[in-house]
Amino acid sequence: MDLLDGRLKFRHLTLLVAIVDHGSVVRAAESLHLTQPAATRTLRELEGIADLPLFVREPRGMRATLYGEALTEHARAVLAEMRRAEERLTALRQGREGTVTVGALLAGTNVLLPRAVAQLKRDRPGLTVVVREGTPDVLHPALLSGELDVVVGRVGPAPREGDGLRQRRLYRERIRLAVRAGHPLLETADVALTDTLGFPWILPVEQTALRQELGALFVDRGLTLPSDRVECTSFLTMRALLVQTDMVALLPELVLRADEHLAALPVELPSVGRTVGTTEAAHRTRTPALQALLHHLDHEAALLRETLHGPPAEG
Length: 315
Prior knowledge:
There is one protein chain. This protein has 315 residues and is of the alpha/beta class. The chain folds into 2 domains: 10-94, Arc Repressor Mutant, subunit A (Orthogonal Bundle), CATH 1.10.10.10; 98-308, 3-Layer(aba) Sandwich (D-Maltodextrin-Binding Protein, domain 2). The chain is 43% helix and 21% strand. Strands 3, 4, 5, 6, 7, 8, 9, 10 and 11 form a 9-stranded mixed sheet that branches. A hairpin with a 2-residue loop joins β1 (55-58) and β2. The longest helix has 29 residues, at 66-94. It is rod-shaped, with a radius of gyration of 32 Å. The protein starts with 9 loop residues before the first helix and ends in a 7-residue tail after the last helix.
């Protein structure tokens, strides 16, 4: 006897369970919408494969032998697992389960992404979300290699044709100079950018578009970037430094609005802003899990646009 030689089929197992449940081949055949001859033939095949008597024929039906009871127990387990597999595959197809892996830039991790993930998990608790923070030079190659499904955060100019990326713009917000509540600069009349140079700065790292824009602004105003500085991509580290020291940093307007321990300096930075959106691999098919996340990102972005009183982003 070798039950794994390829002869045993699901139709054998379903018939075995049906005969035990209904007590006869006739009633089992009816429940499975089979003819009696077909059911009898399938049972004969099964007993041949098992090389053991599985049922005792009695005047009023059939009774499973010790071998039949044992095989039926395993058959029920196999069929139950297949039903669970079907349910799992259906859930994956519909996006109720599975995994979506997100690359998060600083611009997306503080407001938009947490809100979208929270709504996604309320709708689909069986779906796993993996978030990896990084800079574009790290996250974009990971996106192209398939390690990430999407990158959420600041988007720049449209990708070049050969980059293999596609972007969607969701909203735009101002970048503000941030300090702790009670910072000395908040008491300074007509505070200017030059006044901030007397304090340590937290700068974006060189690989970011925000750093490039800030550098261009300093050059335009005849200034050099602060030498007393920390370069950081971690929002948690940046916030802790701001709250605990007199450092100055660049933060999105939405972050400052939501944090009573931080404040924005009244210094205009007209050339420094950010458009938040999503970046995907251009020719990759979206999974149901990714589609579900994108739906919630779109919804939360629409609410944020209303909060910022800005027009809908194009693209």
